[in-house]
Amino acid sequence: MRIPLSRPIALALIAASILPIAGCASRGGKGKSDLPYVARDVGTLYSAARRYLDQGDYKLAAALFDEVERQHPYSIWARRAQIMSAFSYYLAHDYTNSIQSAQRFISVHPGNRDAQYAYYLVALGYYEQISDVTRDQKITQQALDSLGELTRRYPNSKYAADARLKIDLVRDHLAGKEMEVGRFYETRGQWLAATLRFRKVVDDYQTTTHVPEALMRLTETYLALGVPAEAEKAAAVLGANYPGTQWYEHAYKLMQQHPVKPMAVATAGSVVALGAPGTEGSDRPKKLPKLPKLPKPAESTPNP
Q1: Cα separation of 86 and 118, whole Å?
Q2: Are 84 and 114 within 8 A, CB to CB?
Q3: What are phi and psi of 3, to 5 degrees?
Q4: Which end of the chain offers a freer environment for a tag, N or C, measured as fewer CB atoms within 10 Å?
Q5: DSSP assigned state of 34
Q6: Is pLDDT at 5 greater than 50 in this prediction?
Q7: pTM recorded for the entire structure
Q8: CA-angle at 191, arms to 247 and 136, nearest 5°
């Protein structure tokens, strides 16, 4: 999944925090691993890196920023070159090297004022690699973890608001993956496995756009499992929270076709079938608790 990134925030930080350095630029190699070692003063290296960055040659800029750190590790510009290298790799879409450079900066300079930006670059590096829901979502989880760490460490930073927005999008994506797997199990008649996936969406991703469908799918799978009382509960929650959706309209029709028998009592998340009076278990309640009453569907709106 690729969501366009607004770059003014990042560029503004760099423009405000870097002083121009005088010096003549010298052309280096083609990339990080191909750049030959030529001893140069820090001003020449840094100025050349900045020039290539401004010209849009991000890979060469990143390689030159790495050279600043390699040739002048104790210079005041070595620290700045580390974060600039991570930024340049990010612009070059080399997210692996960008993440590595930013993480190295964090490990060496955890208390630096630019550490928050390094955390942001790490999160963006994972975020930009999120794939569609049909593929493995390990990177998506890493993006969520990195964004969460940024907001926890720097809740009031200029990057926190953007990180929170991205967290919502990432969580919606992870919920979409659970739905994808749940639908797969449902089409194969693996009702319990499907139910667990849909239940996870309802329990762990309550604020995402996938919850209405998850509740409707739970209604289907609970009915298939032979626990209509649980199906009615799922449909009731769906009707209370999303009454105008086609998902609830479908769930309501299902429950009309499969009404809950009066002797089925929902207790503690399971359904207990009570036998006839006079049989074993005379301590059964005489008056059965009422199950949730399903409201009639409101006028449905198109499902997004």
Answers
A1: 8
A2: no
A3: -110, 125
A4: C
A5: T
A6: no
A7: 0.73
A8: 85
